Amino acid sequence: MSLAEVREFIELLAKENPNAQSELIYTTPYTLLVAVVLSAQATDASVNKATEKLFEIASTPQAMVALGEDGVAQYINSIGLWRAKSRNVVALSAQLIELYKGEVPGKREALEALPGVGRKTANVVLNIAFNQSTMAVDTHIFRLGNRTGLAIGKDVLAVEKALVRRIPKDLLRDSHHWLILHGRYICKARKPECWRCPAPKICHYPDKILTP
DNA sequence: AACTCGGGGCA
DNA sequence: TGCCCAGAGTT
Length: 212
Prior knowledge:
Layout: H1 3-16, H2 29-38, H3 44-57, H4 61-76, H5 82-100, H6 108-112, H7 119-128, H8 139-148, H9 156-166, H10 169-185
This protein binds a DNA duplex through helix 3, helix 5, helix 7, helix 8 and helix 10.
C-alpha cells in the first residue's frame, strides 16, 4: 500500500465511521486510563456500562483508593478479569497519588510502570490525552495492518512503528477508532465481510470476498 | 513461548 | 454449549 493509498484508506474508514468516539468519551486522562485498563480482553460496550456507574462514584485517584478493591469490584464484576482489574485500578491510583500528585504522567516509562498498564494502554493515553504521535496496536489493528498491507510487521511493535511512520500526522490521533471498528466489524478475524469494506481496491488481502 | 485471568457475546 | 475477546503479568 503506497503512502497515497494509506491516506485514502484511512479517510475512507473515517467516512465509514462518522460517529466513532470510543475512548474520546472519557474526558479526563485519569478516567481514560482506568477505562483502558478495564478494557483488556473485554468488549467496549460492557466496559462503558461499568465505567458509567464507577466514575459517578470515583472519577479521581483519591476517590478510587477510598472506594477500595471490593468497592471497585462491585461496579466491574460484570466484565471479565474483574479481580485483577480491581486490584490494579486501586494500586495504580495509589501510585498516581504517591508519585505524581494524583496526575496521570505523560511519559511512556511512567505509564508502563503502573500496574495493569502495558504498551497498548500507554499508547492510548499518550495519543488521546497527551496528543503524542503513537498508535495503540491491539489484535484487531495488528491483523488489519498485516492483512490489508497498511502496516506489515511480525510483531505488535513493528506494526505500531509502521503505522506511526505511514499514517499522516493529521489523521494519526483519530485513526485508532476507525481502524479498530473496521477490524472488529468488517475486517474480522474469521469471515471478513469484504463486500462491506469501503476500500477493496486499496486492500492487498489476497482472499477478499467481494460478494456476501 | 506458554499460561492465567473471566464474565459476556455470539455462532 | 463452546469458543473467543479493545492485554498484561508471571513463569
